[in-house]
UniProtKB/TrEMBL annotation, chain A:
GO terms for cellular component: plasma membrane. Residues 347-369 are annotated as: Disordered. GO terms for molecular function: branched-chain amino acid transmembrane transporter activity. The chain crosses the membrane at residues 6-25, 46-67, 73-93, 100-117, 123-141, 150-169, 198-217, 247-270, 282-309, 321-338. It comes from Alkaliphilus serpentinus. CDD domains: TM_PBP1_LivM_like (cd06581). It is found in: Cell membrane. InterPro entries: ABC_transp_permease, LivM-like. This is Branched-chain amino acid ABC transporter permease. Keywords: Cell membrane, Membrane, Transmembrane, Transmembrane helix. Signal peptide: none annotated. It is a multi-pass membrane protein.
UniProtKB/TrEMBL annotation, chain B:
GO terms for cellular component: plasma membrane. Residues 4-251 form the ABC transporter domain. InterPro entries: AAA+_ATPase (IPR003593), ABC_AA/LPS_Transport (IPR051120), ABC_transporter-like_ATP-bd (IPR003439), BCA_ABC_TP_C (IPR032823), P-loop_NTPase (IPR027417). Keywords: ATP-binding, Nucleotide-binding, Transport. One of its GO terms (molecular function) is L-phenylalanine transmembrane transporter activity. One of its GO terms (biological process) is L-isoleucine import across plasma membrane. This is ABC transporter ATP-binding protein. Signal peptide: none annotated. SUPFAM superfamilies: P-loop containing nucleoside triphosphate hydrolases.
Automatic annotation (TrEMBL), chain C:
InterPro entries: ABC_transp_permease, BCAA_transport_permease. One of its GO terms (biological process) is L-isoleucine import across plasma membrane. The keyword Magnesium does not apply. The chain crosses the membrane at residues 6-28, 63-81, 93-113, 133-157, 186-209, 264-283. Belongs to the binding-protein-dependent transport system permease family. LivHM subfamily. It is found in: Cell membrane. One of its GO terms (molecular function) is L-valine transmembrane transporter activity. Pfam families: BPD_transp_2. Keywords: Amino-acid transport, Cell inner membrane, Cell membrane, Membrane, Transmembrane, Transmembrane helix, Transport. This is Branched-chain amino acid ABC transporter permease.
Amino acid sequence: MANLSRVLFNLVLATAILFGLIKILSKAFDFVARYISSIDKKTKRFINIGIALMVAIWPIVFINQPYVLRTSIIVLLYIVLALSLNIVLGFAGQLSIGHSAFYAIGAYVTALLTVNFQISFWIALPTSALIAALFGLLLGIPTLRLKGDYLAITTIGFGEILRLVLINWTNLTRGPAGIPGIPFPKIFGFMINTNLRYYYLILVLVMFTIFVSYRLLNSRLGRGLIAVRDDEIAAEAMGIKSTYLKILAFVLGAAFAGIAGSFFATYIHYVNPDNFNYMESVLILCMVVLGGVGSIPGVILGATVLTIIPEALRDIATYRYAIYGILLILMMIIRPQGMLSMASLKGGAKSENSGNKKRNKGLRGLSGS
Amino acid sequence: MRILETKNVTKAFGGLVAVNDVDFHIEEGEIVSLIGPNGAGKTTFFNLITGIYEPTKGEIKFLDQFLKKSKPYEITKLGIGRTFQNIRLFSSMTVLENVMAGQYCRTKADLFSAIFKLPNARKEEDRVMEKSLEILDFLDLKKIKDEIAVSLPYGYQRRVEIARALATEPKLLLLDEPAAGMNTGEKKEMQGIIRKIRDKGFTILVIEHDMKLVMGISDRIVVLDYGNKIAEGLPQEIQHNERVIEAYLGKGGAA
Amino acid sequence: MFMEQLSNGIALGSIYALTAIGFTMVYGIIRLINFVHGDIYMMGAFFALTGLTVLGLPLIPSFLLGMIGASIVGVLLAKFAYSPVFKAPRINLLLCAIGAAIFLENFAMLVWGPETQSFPTLIENKTYSIFGFKATTLQLIILGVSIALVLILTYIVKYTKLGRAMRCTSQDMEAAKLMGINTNRVVYFTFMIGSSLGAAAGVLVGMYYKAAYPMMGFTAGLKAFVSAVIGGIGNIPGAMLGGLIMGVSESLGAAYISSGYRDAIAFIILIFILLVKPSGILGKSVKEKV
């Protein structure tokens, strides 16, 4: 009982702190978003180049601090993962909670190819993406025709089935023991075997993911996806083939998760089924929601914050996931659009309310008929 | 030329027959109004034409093509654009983006060329932008093109919905209560807009309750009551049709 | 062997049915896939266990403690986590539910520890043989308690004023509100009943497998969902039917196909149902009004 009251006290305290923090940060981020939406293209480009330079020289500054480098690499890895889920959840509006399954597929494909068949990482990487995408397609076709909540559960189910397969198919996956000894990637005789080199490898992958997300969002397909997310019936009435687009987003999201998995396998040199459990999916989901569903800068921010915070708060590591739970609830209550939301970046922060009211249709649809 | 024709179209929801045996047609370049008391089945009729519902019985022919089991997006691609009674704009998009989304079915760029901005995708994007701006200009929406669409006043939202429907490049435009909730001045403006659209060569089918507007714009009027077509004719004819008056006011209500 | 597996399946199935009913009730009222439900079930088991071991209560008061404790948790969540986002887009509500589920799982881990705790043996487990069926005392108790609870629930839903209000609210919340029904109270009441049924299932499972652990609700919640979908989500008899189908196919599948994939069976059934008849066996399909 003493334990119960201590836990309750700590959690209530955490809730209060988070509540205050979100309130204060909301104001700060509103301010930032207003600033970003007001600056012109030239300044924006200037800022982007500045950030890119900073990210590029970052590891050189910290070259003698392996801890900082390792953490930075993990941050970048999660940025790829969060952006991959963002294509599914943020662009297409489909709630997938089994995203770590595709991450796992990517990791295992790379592990198996490089360890069992000595295939080069540079072939294993696209193969991992492709196979993850294929699984995305297979899962997406039956489920994406259905309402969103079914998808959520089916994706969890898929993640669990995959985990069971990884555990039970011992001939292939060595079961719970996992696959050790994944080699360093080599390119033209140049071995990627230091944190610094890994940093630049994952940085390239992050850039590629951002590039694809951004271009996709600003293309006809991206507009179609956002239309489907905002109002599927209206989208169909505008000639948008919603099922096709949802599957496309799902497949693309799976492919990028596969890329992340492939990198993970070569970086850690070891994979086992426990790396890819339900909580991993939840963590990726939290990153997207915290940052702002659909917003690319927001999701990058979300991934960064949620990777660094637990590192910084080692002392309360046991409370980590409980706090994630509280965080998710509080975000939904206080700031459902996330820290840097899509609309606020368009300069429509005021309209956030009316936007939400409009989307109440979803709720009307479910209380009515 | 008959652009749309329906024969014996019926839609039943369980025991409730919302649209019963309706024969209907619309000629190219016409403005036809579909009127009737609340619950007469007008919106259901729209939903049948646009493929949101599948008719229980009967057939719908659009430009010599039977719309059987066609999905809404296929029908839009064939050339039927629509607006909604309860406005359904894309809530996170600006006015311009809403209209550009309407161009989706007239573009083809695949994932690869869209992401790497290959020449065909680039050309297409330019065309979409140009076309969308042209439509916004046509409907006097250009100055608010960067506003989030759902944050606009009601009258503007209706107009953006029409712009979005026009962006699908329809041959037939369906407007579901375009003037609902507007004041007299706005209604007059809407009347002008509908005329202007027709003069551009579009065929228009309107559901509307406001009789002044209906009488002002329609070439022909079709009246539905309890799912049945009870009258059809020129505005003057409908105004004096006894069955229509009865449907609106009840038996003996005219007295 | 077959008969033994069948009675295992029925016992398991009636637990799934109990869990699925609570799940389907909440869905019926607010159209929410209540991710927390599995964790309410876990809380029920832990509360009862605390009653038995820490407080030294006898079985029946502990059982009731589990049900009451879990239903308080359910109502508190409905009040503080769900009701602020009732009016928001649906995906927010769903994410809130996921957040609450993660919270409860980890809360239990913090309070009771992540290890599996053993349930004391309370009832002498004998094996009976009836018409070729082999059933143990515990299986019979599970079946009996489940039937009793379902009967009580049916009475409440069919013959009481609150039950009528529940049925109205599930058909059309707005209309129910306009008819003077306090829909908030109905929602909380639904959470209370649903949670207490879920908790009962949790306690029964704890007794059956003699174990309780913080993540026990995770797969149970998913299986409750699958049971509810099989029967037609939002439909109480459907949930019972779905639960039994699930329990039996799982027992038989584990025995004759592979025990390693036991938990996968539910999802294979789910994907199959979604492909063939997404509205479930007893459900009706609903289309959004345009």
